[in-house]
């Protein structure tokens, strides 16, 4: 069992997963961000591998990726930074990026590096289910690296079952049909989608992502899944508070977890 | 042997490496397109529009002065005479008819040189549907006349401001738009790139080019197969169309001409098959220009239509299997060829097509060979560039 599976065994609700783009705002912030997020009570961390052509991402993550690449981020350095951070925390760490990055680095070498540096799982939104099962599943399993596949409101039932069969760790449940960083209000249609998936009794736990940006939307999402993922909102906070990121990170996490926010119910 | 398989692969190239967010859009298309395009009423309307609206068949012209110069029998396939000035409209006619039958009311497209954007704006005007064209900010500057044409045709031109601000980034933006609008929108990709079924679908719509070449060459020479067919390749749609019905005619050599930019090893190039490696771009496993970390490299060519860091998976397969030969032509060689063709035959080619003509200077061929050069587009849009370099490269 790896750290992701352990987490979901010990904690069943309100799981907070935070995403950041490695190399942003500064090249060598990776270790500080991981340690501060972990110290502030985040349950899971997604480390974005900055990519030149992030198709599934909205403007915020695109921009953080270009900044990270301009800062000089590359995979060998990132693995070193992760290994250094791993000395100080047992929090589950996931890398998220695009499949071409893994393919070009070499799938075997990439998996070995994940294992050595302390990565527990991967999210590769453009790796197809069929190709994963045929060509790469064995390598993931051999290295005990979990993989999360995505589902959206338009994913068909037979495909959701396939995702559940192949996922190890958690299913990444995209809240709406959009790129990352969209609006945060959960509407009736989304509620129906969340409930529909809940009733499928999937074997994997689920985290809701895309459009989760504050305490209210986090809490709301947690009613329908084991937890939620925050990305773009955290990157915007880092951009704003980049002169001193430690307090920025602590404040952000505590605001998501604790601060009571009054929601105005519209009749 | 060169046919796409059920999963969208040509050999090891192709497939659909797309985020789940895009899956419903692409899957809807994959499930329906073959059925729709094989229907009688679709084919009838497609052929009618190609004839009456586009002006097909385009001539296959025996270029006497050019032939004398190169001591070969050279024919030009005159795609430059298509309505809107390039082969791109063959595909947009096909895809707009498909979009209508899929019930899509909103069309998006990407464009590099602007030819595909114009061809898309044109068919959207023809059918009365909304049209949004994504175009790199850099391309908007260097292809101003086409931007004006798209606007006049009623399309909205949205600048792509990310990355290198050229074709690949316009494609990214169009894909993101589709992710955000899966229900009412059809994405008309302009080349044989992107996730399955796009490469094969676009190649099929463009295959009218080689279908006509076969018929016309037979009438003119008594033999439907030339010795060599030459076409330029950015993503590769005109080449795919010109090669399509010859893929299994092993005695016809297929020559794909890429843009070398300032030179293959100058760092300013778009010669993908030479300096590229296997990877994934825009949902397709193919050859592309990338770093050892898999970051996509910004390409360069004087021609906006060839300024793309990948090639379609069919071409990756044809080149790596040895079926097609790849030749690289620099900016300077393409310009010289454009001036030469203009003087020799009275035809001003698009900068993209000029690359194919420049290949005559370095290609191996036997004296008396029958060569078909695909003249994919006309040069009106490139006049500013041609005037800029006229004094430097025009040889009397």
The radius of gyration over CA of chain A amounts to: 17 Å
Q: Mean of residue pLDDT of chain B?
A: 96
* Strand runs of chain A, count: 9
Largest sheet composition of chain A: 9 strands, parallel
Biggest β-sheet: strands ordered side by side in the sheet of chain A? 5-4-3-2-1-9-8-7-6
User: β content of chain B, as a range?
Assistant: 15-25%
Amino-to-carboxy terminus distance of chain A: 47 Å
| Count of alpha/pi helices of chain B | 16
Key structural traits:
heterodimer; A: 267 residues; alpha/beta; TIM Barrel; 9-stranded parallel β-sheet; 12 helices; disordered C terminus; B: 396 residues; Rossmann fold; 6-stranded mixed β-sheet; 4-stranded parallel β-sheet; 16 helices; globular
How would you portray this structure in words?
The complex is a heterodimer of chains A (267) and B (396). With 267 residues, chain A is α/β, with parallel strands linked by helices. Chain A has a single domain, classed as Aldolase class I (TIM Barrel), CATH 3.20.20. Chain A contains twelve helices and nine strands. Chain A has a nine-stranded parallel β-sheet with strand order 5-4-3-2-1-9-8-7-6. Chain A starts with a helix and ends in a 10-residue tail after the last helix. Chain B has 396 residues and is of the alpha/beta class. Chain B folds into two domains: 17-49 and 88-202, Rossmann fold; 55-85 and 207-393, 3-Layer(aba) Sandwich (Rossmann fold), CATH 3.40.50.1100. Chain B is built from 16 helices and 14 strands. Chain B has helices at residues 23-37, 40-54, 64-70, 88-101, 115-127, 137-142, 144-152, 167-180, 198-206, 208-221, 237-243, 272-275, 313-320, 331-345, 351-358, 383-393, and strands at residues 9-10, 13-14, 60-62, 73-78, 106-111, 130-136, 156-160, 185-188, 228-232, 253-261, 277-281, 284-288, 324-330, 370-375. Chain B has a six-stranded mixed β-sheet, with helices on both faces. In chain B, strands 7-6-5-8 form a four-stranded parallel β-sheet, with helices on both faces. Chain B has a two-stranded antiparallel sheet with strand order 1-2. Chain B is globular and about 55 Å long. The termini of chain B are far apart. The mean pLDDT of chain B is 96. At the A-B interface, helix 3, helix 5 and strand 6 of A face helix 8 and strand 11 of B.
């Amino acid at each position: 069992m790896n750290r992701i599976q352990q987490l979901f065994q010990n904690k069943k609700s309100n799981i907070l997963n935070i995403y950041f783009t490695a190399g942003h705002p500064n090249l060598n912030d990776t270790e500080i961000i991981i340690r501060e997020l972990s110290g502030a009570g985040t349950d899971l961390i997604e480390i974005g591998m900055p990519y030149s052509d992030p198709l599934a991402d909205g403007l915020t993550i695109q921009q953080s990726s270009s900044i990270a690449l301009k800062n000089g981020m590359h995979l060998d350095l990132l693995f070193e930074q992760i290994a250094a951070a791993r000395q100080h925390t047992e929090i589950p760490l996931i890398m998220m990026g695009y499949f071409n990055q893994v393919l070009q680095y070499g799938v075997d070498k990439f998996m070995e590096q994940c294992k050595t540096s302390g990565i527990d799982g991967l999210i590769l939104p453009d790796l197809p289910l069929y190709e994963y099962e045929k060509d790469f599943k064995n390598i993931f399993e051999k290295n005990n690296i979990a993989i999360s596949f995505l589902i959206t409101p338009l994913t068909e039932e037979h495909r959701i079952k396939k995702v559940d069969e192949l996922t190890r760790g958690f299913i990444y449940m995209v809240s709406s049909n959009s790129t990352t960083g969209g609006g945060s209000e959960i509407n009736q249609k989304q509620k129906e989608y969340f409930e529909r998936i809940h009733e499928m009794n999937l074997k994997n736990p689920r985290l809701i992502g895309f459009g989760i940006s504050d305490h209210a939307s986090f809490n709301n999402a947690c009613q329908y899944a084991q937890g939620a993922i925050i990305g773009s909102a955290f990157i915007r906070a880092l951009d704003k508070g980049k002169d001193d990121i430690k307090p920025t990170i602590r404040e952000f996490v505590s605001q998501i977890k604790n601060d009571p926010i009054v929601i105005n119910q519209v009749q | 042997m060169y046919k796409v398989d059920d999963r969208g692969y040509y050999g090891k190239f192709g497939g659909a490496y797309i985020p789940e967010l895009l899956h419903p859009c692409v899957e809807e298309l994959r499930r329906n397109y073959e059925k729709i395009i094989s229907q009688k009423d679709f084919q009838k309307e497609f052929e009618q529009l190609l004839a009456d609206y586009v002006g097909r068949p385009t001539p296959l012209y025996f270029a006497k002065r050019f032939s004398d110069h190169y001591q070969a029998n050279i024919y030009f396939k005159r795609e430059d005479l298509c309505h809107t000035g390039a082969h791109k409209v063959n595909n947009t006619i096909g895809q707009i008819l498909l979009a209508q039958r899929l019930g899509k009311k909103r069309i998006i497209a990407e464009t590099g040189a602007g030819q595909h954007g114009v061809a898309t704006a044109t068919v959207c005007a023809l059918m009365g549907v909304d049209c949004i064209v994504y175009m790199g900010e850099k391309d908007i500057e260097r292809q101003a006349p086409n931007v004006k044409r798209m606007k006049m045709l009623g399309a909205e031109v949205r600048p792509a401001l990310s990355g290198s601000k050229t074709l690949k980034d316009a494609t990214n933006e169009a894909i993101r738009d589709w992710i955000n609008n899966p229900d009412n929108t059809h994405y008309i990709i302009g080349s044989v790139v992107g996730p399955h079924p796009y490469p094969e679908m676009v190649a099929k719509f463009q295959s009218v080019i080689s279908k006509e070449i076969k018929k016309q060459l037979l009438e003119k020479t008594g033999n439907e197969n030339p010795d060599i067919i030459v076409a330029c390749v950015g993503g590769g749609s005109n080449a795919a169309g010109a090669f399509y019905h010859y893929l299994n005619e092993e005695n016809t050599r297929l020559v794909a001409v890429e843009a070398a930019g300032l030179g293959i090893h100058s760092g300013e190039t778009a010669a993908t098959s030479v300096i590229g490696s296997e990877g994934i771009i825009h949902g397709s496993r193919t050859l592309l220009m990338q770093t050892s970390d898999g970051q996509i490299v910004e390409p360069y060519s004087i021609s906006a239509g060839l300024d793309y860091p990948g090639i379609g998976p069919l071409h990756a397969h044809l080149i790596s299997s040895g079926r097609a030969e790849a030749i690289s032509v620099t900016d300077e060689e393409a310009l010289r060829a454009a001036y030469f063709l203009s003087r020799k035959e009275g035809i001003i080619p698009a900068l993209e097509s000029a690359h194919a003509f420049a290949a005559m200077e370095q290609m191996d061929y036997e004296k008396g060979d029958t060569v078909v050069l695909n003249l994919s587009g006309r040069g009106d849009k490139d006049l500013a560039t041609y005037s800029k370099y006229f004094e430097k490269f025009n040889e009397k």
